[in-house]
Predict the structure of Sulfite oxidase.
Amino acid sequence: MLVHQDEPYNAETPPDALAAQITSLDSFYGRNHAPIPHIDSASWRLRVEGLVDRPLELSMDDLRRRFPERTVVATLQCAGNRRADLIEVRDIPHQVPWGPGATSTARWSGVSLADVLDEAGVRPEAAHIAFTGADVSQQTDPPQPFGGSVPVAKATSSEVLLAWAMNGQQLPAVHGAPVRVVVPGWIGARSVKWLQRISAQAEPSDNHFQTEYSVLLPEAEPGTPGDGITLGPISIHCAILRPARNAHLACGPTKISGFAFAGEDRTVARVEVRADHGSPWTRADLDPPANPWTWQHWHATLTLPAGEVELIARAWDSTAAVQPESPATVWNLRGYANNAAAHLHVTCRP
């Protein structure tokens, strides 16, 4: 792991682990705003309240006994993934300089959030489902638990889980035990860990981190209400995993590989790669997706010239959206949602 901070713990997945279809538990990225809570699953309770006909208080045994277990393979990704590329354009103070490894894929098991909401009886006037975790952040004034919300339509989709297992094992404390939300296709901040409360409500969550995870335009003043675009579904993007950044290689035919991720229920339709601006694009071979909620790996072979070379990769999704070529075009004050084409520098010797 590439550890950016020990407390709160923030660490990204190394490139070799990103090349696997499923990320191992000890390589899965960690993004936190507070110390990791350690919660006794036997005494843990989940409250479901707000605009519901039947408020619930559920234990772990209740979840297992009253609802069918489901499994979804899904990629989670921090909204700040690849922020380091934006920092090269212009500094972004006080933010974690994530490379391409603030993303990972796991096999999640638990119960459908839709099933739990159905038992609670969500009222017609509820438009959003809000989540509150047990992790209390000192970054807010006053300190508050991490939280956020998603629209009812997303919350009641079959892929959204209350997960207690990860890759066939009990959910680790670092990833949200005893139960976390998993919202496939959306930024990781909406997959709230250490879940304690679910609330059906007419408006989005008023939690600090619901609006913190928004894109502020370059001319905006941070802290001004309504000055950002709240983040939800992930935009199409890709990363180059091999060769390594700043690698020294022999010139000639060279295998280039990486992953692409489309977010929401979109898939990756095409990936292209080239060596330096102006050279022709080469279409990469694209692995089929495990399902609509996961990344897709790609690989291509380019003939690299001697000298300094910049590798560039870009992807299209199934709606024909394509990545912008330069990180400068998507730079923003918090460094979120970088979906610019991937750039990687190498040196080739004759």
In short: The chain has two domains: 2-230, 237-349. DSSP finds six helices and 23 strands in the chain. The mean pLDDT is 94. The two ends are 33 Å apart (CA to CA).
